[in-house]
Design brief:
This protein is mostly beta strands. Helix content is about 15%, strand content about 40%. It has 2 domains: about 80 residues, Beta Barrel (Elongation Factor Tu (Ef-tu), domain 3), CATH 2.40.30; about 80 residues, Beta Barrel (Elongation Factor Tu (Ef-tu), domain 3). The strands form 2 sheets. Strands 10-9-13-7-8-12-11 form a 7-stranded antiparallel beta sheet.
Length: about 220
């Protein structure tokens, strides 16, 4: 698990093809590796990877064929910058939200423009995950925990807007985003489980069904 608070911008040092998979070597820049051991998890652009080799300033992780095809990691090249975060511990401050490091889909940056001292980004999400995205809810973009400012449904999916403050732009790869940039999206894990409950997957047949009215009465849903 992660918090969505990026700890360093790393750089891809090497990509080693291995029978359809890939070994990724990442230079970690300012990321403190002193408490990282082999087998530990590190999120790379929001994708949870396992360190299989490491030095004081780098680590190597295997990336499966499926991960390469379903995330933006397949488009990386030597020199690409990536967001890095070590797995959280019980002593870690949860400054963002609970992030699993399991990407739900690829989004695309539609536009960006100045909004005061911040920047406003419009991002299109794939249709199969857009129903998890809510106004003022949490979403993870390339490993960064962010708040959704606005959701604008469209025929092919959903456009949503985020506001990025100068510090976040400076400390993450969001500074490189432009129209057409592909980004890894992870929806809030609470939304996934809530959907499962509403569908009745975790409710016994003889129990009272959870309805929209029940959720609204208990503060979980707004019509």
């Amino acid at each position: 698990m992660f918090t969505g608070i990026i700890q360093s911008i790393g750089t891809i040092a090497d990509l080693q093809p291995k029978g359809g998979d890939m070994a990724l070597v990442v230079n970690t820049a300012k990321l403190d590796m002193s408490d990282v051991s082999l087998g530990d998890s590190i999120a790379v652009n929001g994708v949870c990877l396992t360190a299989i080799a490491m030095t004081d300033t780098s680590f190597t992780a295997d990336v499966s064929r499926e991960t390469l095809s379903l995330t933006s990691l397949g488009a990386l090249s030597k020199g690409s910058e990536v967001n890095l975060e070590k797995a959280l511990t019980l002593q870690t401050r949860l400054g963002g939200h609970m992030v699993s490091g399991h990407v739900d889909g690829l989004g695309e940056v539609k536009s960006r423009h100045n909004d005061g001292r911040s920047e406003r980004f419009v991002i299109t999400a794939p249709v199969d995950i857009c129903h998890y995205i809510a106004n003022k809810g949490s979403i993870t973009i390339d490993g960064v925990s962010l708040t959704v400012n606005k959701v604008n449904p469209i025929a092919s999916g959903s456009d949503f807007e985020i506001n990025i403050v100068p510090h976040t732009i400076q400390e993450t790869i969001i500074s490189h985003y432009q129209a057409g940039t592909k980004v890894n999206l992870e929806v809030d894990v609470v939304a996934r489980y809530l959907e499962r409950l509403v569908q009745g997957g975790a409710i016994k047949a003889d129990s009272t069904n959870i309805t929209e009215a029940f959720l609204a009465e208990n503060g979980f849903y707004k019509s």
